[in-house]
Amino acid sequence: MTYVFGIDGGGTKTICVLMDENNVVLGRGEAGPSNYQTLGIEQAKESIQLAIERAVFSANIDPNINLKIEAICLGLAGVGRAKDIEIVQFVVQNLELANTLPVTRSLLPRNIVICSDCAIALVGGTGHPVGIAVIAGTGSIVFGQNRQGETKRVGGWGYILGDEGSGYDIAVEGLQAALKFYDGRGDVTALAEKFQGHLGLNNLEELVEVVYRRGWGVKEIAALAPIVDRAAAEGDRVADGIIDNAVAKLTFSTKIAISALFKPTEEFEIVTVGGVWGGDANFRGRFETAIGAIAPKAQLISPRYEPAFGAALLALNSFNH
Question: Which residue has the higher pLDDT, 65 or 125?
Answer without folding.
Answer: 125
